Amino acid sequence: MKLMKTLASAALAVFMLAVPAQAQVKIGVFLPLTGQNAFGGQLELDGVNLAAKELPEVLGQKVELVVVDNKSDQVEAANAVTRLINRDKVVAIIGTYGSSLAMAGGKVAEAAKVPVVGTSCTNPLVTQGMTYYFRACFIDPYQGAGAATYAVKNLNAKKAALLVDVANDYAVGLSAFFKRSFIKLGGEIVADLKYQSGDQDFTAQLTEIISKKPDVVFIPAYFAEGGIIMKQAKELGAKFRLMGGDAMDNPETITIAGDAAEGFVHTTFPYDPGMTNMNEQAKAFTEAWTKAFPDKDPNVNAALGYTSYVMIIDAIKRGNAATSAAITKALADTKDLATPLGHLTLDEDHNPAMPVGIIEIKGGKRVYVGEVQPD
Fold first, then answer.
1. Residue 218: which of 173, 258, 275, 250 has the closest Cα?
2. Where along the chain do its domains lie?
3. Which CATH superfamily is domain 141-268+357-372 in?
4. What integer is the mean pLDDT of 319-346?
5. Are residues 97 and 44 in contact, defined by beta-carbon separation less than 8 angstroms?
6. How confident is the model at residue 353, as a pLDDT?
């Protein structure tokens, strides 16, 4: 009997060795989980994780996410992508929040021929001339034009001023596109003032802007500095409307600015749990999010992270292979893909077309007031 048990155990061991472990598809994620952009990066990671939970396998293979913190730093972003490619051997990468971080990591991915799907990196240079970088978000020329169109047609603005972080690629690019479109629509730019990332005192710039009497002031800032600008503008008695870009779409904006945020308008991507024209994928995402995170409201950054993962899984299925080359080719051919942000088709520069959403702070709450098609 003992001999038979020994032989049975040996046979089982041989059988187990003969059955290969399920193959895995490694997808990398590089997002800012610490540093200046950590709040947005964490929201996007939540969305990626939610999508991976819903779509854990592709082509019969288990998907393994490998997450690396790019620490809101360009050097660390390049290092993160290098690690994902060289050490973790990923076949595709998701990221990142922050255009400067995307461009730093993109150079590494391009050289290694590994495809990346950007979450909310809106500067056109992220994908311009690139073979391996794609994105789930609109780009700043379109966003800037959308903001200018809303300012002129909905806010009846004739004069605008700019207050721009000159150390930030996103801010510099978005302000330039707003300025160009606002002038094209017949508006006048009465001031174009600068500051540096990390500044806390904007009273000198705001005082000069107030003297120019603009109808709107466009601040393509991140939420921390944007909230401070709002507070200081209110303290100085400013009468103009403040406008911003998608980087202001953050609950902390209202926390920092308090009642000074009232009336603030910013552009965003076309997803919001309060939107009235929600598509079926947006409804499904909202329901899945509410179940997974009952104590957190669904948000657009999570929707972008979710969509980026869906784009890669869709590319693997259509390309019928979990290789970087097959994924790259299939991503470039993405057409009419149903996502929470709408049906995405990538153009020749790997950018999707989508309307620009508009948020206004009313009664201390962010309200999705609709979309605008830029002129």
1. 173
2. 24-138+279-344, 141-268+357-372
3. Response regulator (3.40.50.2300)
4. 97
5. yes
6. 86
24-138+279-344 placed in CATH 3.30.1330.10:
no
- What is the average pLDDT score of the chain? 92
Output the pTM of the full model.
0.86
What whole-number distance in Å separates Cα of residue 30 and Cα of residue 70?
6
User: Which helix (H) or strand (E) element contains residue 359?
Assistant: strand 356-362
Q: What is the pLDDT of residues 358-368, one digit of tens each?
A: 999 999 999 99
Task: Give the residues across from 118 on adjacent strands.
Answer: 135
Instruction: Kindly state the DSSP code that residue 66 receives in the 8-state scheme.
Output: E
DSSP letter (8 states) at residue 259: G
Rg (CA), the chain: 23
| Helix 300-319 vs helix 38-54: crossing angle, to nearest 10 | 40
Domains 24-138+279-344 and 141-268+357-372 share a fold: yes
Answer yes or no: is pLDDT of 9 > 80: no
Mean predicted confidence (pLDDT) in 74-96:
98
Q: Which two tokens stand for residue 278?
A: 């929600």
Q: What angle do CA 159, 162, 168 make, to 5 degrees?
A: 160
Check pLDDT > 90 for residue 6: no
Residue 352: DSSP 8-state: B
Q: Answer for the pair 306, 340: CB distance below 8 angstroms, yes or no.
A: yes
Dihedral of CA 262/265/268/273: which sign?
positive
Residue 362 backbone phi and psi in degrees, to 5: -130, 125
Average pLDDT for residues 143-165, to the nearest whole number?
A: 97
Q: Is the pLDDT of residue 12 over 80?
A: no
Instruction: Give the Å distances, CA to CA, from 317 to 91, 294, 326.
Output: 14, 31, 10
The H-assigned helical ranges of the chain are: 2-18, 38-54, 74-86, 99-112, 140-153, 169-184, 203-212, 223-235, 251-257, 280-292, 300-319, 324-332
SS3 134: strand
The rounded distance, in Å, linking the Cα atoms of 99 and 95 is 10
Q: For CA atoms 71, 75, 77, 80, give the dihedral sign.
A: negative
